[in-house]
Amino acid sequence: MKRIMAIFLAALVALCAAGCTQASGTSDGRITLNVYNWGQYISDGSDGCLDVIAAFEEAYPNIKVNYTTYDSNEVMYTKLAGGGITVDVIFPSDYMVARMIDEGLLLELNFDNIPNYQYVDDAFKNTAYDPENRYSVPYTWGTVGIIYNTKYVDEEDVTGWELLWNEKYDDKILMFDNSRDAFGIAELLLGYSLNTTDPQQLQACAELLAQQKPLVQQYVMDQIFDLMENEEAWIAPYYAGDYLVMAEENEALEFYLPESQGFNLFIDAMCIPTCCQEKEAAELFINFLCDPEIAGGNMEWIAYSTPISAAKEYMPEEMVESEVAYPSDELLAMGSSFDYLPGSVSRYMESLFLEVRIR
Question: Which residue of 129, 206, 294, 297 could cross-link 5, Cys pair, CB 3.0 to 4.6 Å?
Answer without folding.
Answer: 297
